[in-house]
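Can't paste images in this forum, so I'm doing it all in text. The chain is below; anyone willing to post the predicted structure tokens underneath?
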Amino acid sequence: MVNRVTVAAVSAFAQPWDEQVKPADVVDRMITHWGERLETVIHQRPDLLVLPEYCDRPYVATYPRDLLEEYYAIRGDRIRDFFAEKAAEFGINIAYSASRDTPAGRFNSTQFLGRDGAVVGVYDKCFITDGERSVMGVTPGAGARTVQLDFGSVAGTICFDLNFEELLVDVARLRPDLVVFSSAFHGGYLQSHWAYTARAHFVGAIYPPSKSAVLNPFGEVISTSTNYRHETIAEINLDSALIHIDFNGVKFNAIRREYGRDVRIHDPGSIGAVMISSERDGLSIDEVIDRFELVRLDDYFTRVRTFRADASRAGTV
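Text version of the structure:
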């Protein structure tokens, strides 16, 4: 049935650090800074608010290791706990992306905070850069995973991860409802590629001047930040599915006659597939697919692969 979820991405330029300022004061300033940034969307109570990669790491031109270590030691979980308090106060989920120290090592992590402020899941960046390894001592994460939030499953991915197809394949196998991307770089067309390949909505919080955005499973931009505002918020419907138009397209008018506005068929053009979604409480898109015997996009692709494999074994190709 209709599963409307409001997602927001809130970003900002990395905060500069004058090395004359004490690390403890930098932590306080960072909390004040993010408190001001949250004001841009938090009163709309999004179901999920996503922050950029290393959101609470101050910018120092040379990233001196000793200075960062002192800052992180003083920071501890203070900033995460600040976001947890906001999550509980407004009843929202927050994806907090930051450096995380554990007995197993230091990770570049997205911690998912539930509506009560508790950590409900963590994703550790799998593909770290040379700088993260050599300067910050970051350890690679174990692999793709999903976190179950109250509205659906989310898969985290962080910055450099977006370049690695093997991680995308693993994410797609997990069938998340939403891909959550926290980053310092935009990724260009890779954002759309991830959304389409994972068959999932996508929300990315990116450092300016790059834009943060929400994408549908075709990789089309639903909402975006601008050169003036470094936040964006959008409502998406997770009760949706992609189907190919072959053999399904002839049934679209019958679906429209049966359901009217209660079922939406979105055709992005050029790709030979549509996104079909339920817009009515009590009606799931699975019911529509079953009733009209529609073939899901991946099921159709599997059918084509199987036909080719059978032909190959028979020696006809």
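The longest strand covers residues 93-102. The CA atoms of residues 30 and 36 lie 10 Å apart.
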